[in-house]
Amino acid sequence: TAALTTLTGVEDDLSTSRRSLHSTIDALNDELARRIADGEPATGT
């Protein structure tokens, strides 16, 4: 049905968004770890 197709599309979009968010969080964590290792302030100030 159309509703099921729409729901499946929404689920796929959410999965894509979740993966993107996790990738962004991983990149931020990597940057934070690099700054800590380099002795820089974690906040960038």
Helix-strand topology string: H
**Number of continuous helical runs:** 1
Number of strands: 0
- What Rg do the Cα atoms give? 18 Å
Q: Give the uncertain stretches in residue-range form.
A: none
Q: What portion of residues belong to β-strands?
A: under 5%
How far the N terminus sits from the C terminus, by CA atoms, comes to: 54 Å
Considering DSSP H and I runs of 4 or more, what fraction of the residues is helical? over 70%
Biggest β-sheet description: none
- Net shape: rod-shaped
Ordered list of secondary-structure elements with their pairings:
Layout: H1 2-37
Describe the protein in words:
This protein is an all-alpha fold. 80% of the residues lie in helices and 0% in strands. It has one helix and no strands. It has one helix at 2-37. The longest helix has 36 residues, at 2-37. The N and C termini lie far apart (54 Å). 0% of the residues are buried.
Primary descriptors:
45 residues, mainly alpha
Task: Give a nutshell description of this structure.
This protein is 80% helix and 0% strand. With 45 residues, the protein is mostly helical.
